[in-house]
């Protein structure tokens, strides 16, 4: 069924197809049909960042930027859904065209530029949700906000969503907002994260609820840079690291008609680079912080590979676009089996 739907949707402009798919998912959810398409309920919850995830497979940020369809997406079987990236003010994003399919590589190039309806809209969508899984909110800065003033945008988003989110992710690694990736390093990173940690701790003290803060990093770093970034995040007191965002590398798609298109490359071509980052983080952190692995997961084996490299959870996005709900079911079955066997010492 999904292959037929995909063949029709892929005849449309990628952005039109994206919006239509979200509308269809929301409609099917209202009719109670999504559970018939998606993964089976997990028998192996996973405890990460002080939260109990129904299963280890989540939807990465970017698919549902405005939280307009997260309950429908969650009904497909995801143990957690991350909405956003959201910014304080709504913004149009980069000029079109800005989204390109590379089906030969099961990949996507995007330069969306944090297009979203703004924090107020997203809060209106999540404040009374019924999704039983874990809900994450991915936050960023507006294009018109300078890098030097970025912390204020992240803080505004965090304080708005913290009463309603199960966890929050600071996206400092999108390649499509000028200067954003510079926030991953040194004093810039510390100055960005410190007020977010303070707000997280203040909310916990006042409300008795801890809302974990994760940070999403890029795959385009050397091993030494990965270690330096992770050291800063540990020092600042974040709760987890999401590895990784899209890549600027085009090595895996040389010769493709879209090779020269600007933006981040996701899907199968980023799998190995993402898994390498997970492995470097895990070996360096030695369990100090949990890792959520994302990038190039197109099968249950790919999901398990991320866990074997050191991730505790995984997220999918591009693989879901190409393979549909069956990938969710396969990834859940594979990661559940991995955790059951690990617990038994197999």
UniProtKB/TrEMBL annotation:
Protein name (Swiss-Prot/TrEMBL): Dihydroorotate dehydrogenase (quinone)
Family: Belongs to the dihydroorotate dehydrogenase family. Type 2 subfamily.
Native organism: Marinomonas ushuaiensis DSM 15871
The UniProt record lists the keyword 4Fe-4S: no
Pathway(s) it belongs to: Pyrimidine metabolism; UMP biosynthesis via de novo pathway; orotate from (S)-dihydroorotate (quinone route): step 1/1
Cofactor(s) recorded in Swiss-Prot or TrEMBL: FMN
Domain Dihydroorotate dehydrogenase catalytic as annotated: residue spans: 46-330
Catalytic activities: (S)-dihydroorotate + a quinone = orotate + a quinol
Membrane topology: Peripheral membrane protein
């Amino acid at each position: 069924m999904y292959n037929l739907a995909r063949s029709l949707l892929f005849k449309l402009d990628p952005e039109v197809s994206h919006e239509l798919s979200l509308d269809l998912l929301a409609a099917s959810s209202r009719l109670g049909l999504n559970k018939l398409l998606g993964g089976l309920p997990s028998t192996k919850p996973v405890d990460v960042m002080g939260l109990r995830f129904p299963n280890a497979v989540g939807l990465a940020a970017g698919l549902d930027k405005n939280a307009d369809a997260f309950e429908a997406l969650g009904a497909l079987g995801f143990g957690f859904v991350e909405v956003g990236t959201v910014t304080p003010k709504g913004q149009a994003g980069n000029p079109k065209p800005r989204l390109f399919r590379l089906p030969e590589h099961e990949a996507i190039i995007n330069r969306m530029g944090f297009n979203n309806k703004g924090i107020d809209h997203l809060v209106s969508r999540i404040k009374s949700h019924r999704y039983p899984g874990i809900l994450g909110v991915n936050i960023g800065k507006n294009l018109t906000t300078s890098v030097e003033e970025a912390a204020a945008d992240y803080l505004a988003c965090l304080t708005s969503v913290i009463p309603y989110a199960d966890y929050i992710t600071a996206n400092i690694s999108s390649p499509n907002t000028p200067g954003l990736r510079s926030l991953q390093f040194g004093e810039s990173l510390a100055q960005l994260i410190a007020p977010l940690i303070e707000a997280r701790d203040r909310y916990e003290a006042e409300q008795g609820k801890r809302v974990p803060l994760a940070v999403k990093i890029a795959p385009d770093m050397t091993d030494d840079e990965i270690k330096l970034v992770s050291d800063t995040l540990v020092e600042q007191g974040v709760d987890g690291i999401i590895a990784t965002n899209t890549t600027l590398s085009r090595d895996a798609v040389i010769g493709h008609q879209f090779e020269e298109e600007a933006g981040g490359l996701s899907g199968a071509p980023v799998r190995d680079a993402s898994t390498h980052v997970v492995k470097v983080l895990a070996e360096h952190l030695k369990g100090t912080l949990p890792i959520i692995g994302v990038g190039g997961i197109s099968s249950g084996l790919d999901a398990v590979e991320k866990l074997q490299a050191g991730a505790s959870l995984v997220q999918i996005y591009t693989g879901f676009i190409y393979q549909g709900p069956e990938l969710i079911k396969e990834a859940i079955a594979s990661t559940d089996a991995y955790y059951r066997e690990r617990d038994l010492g197999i």
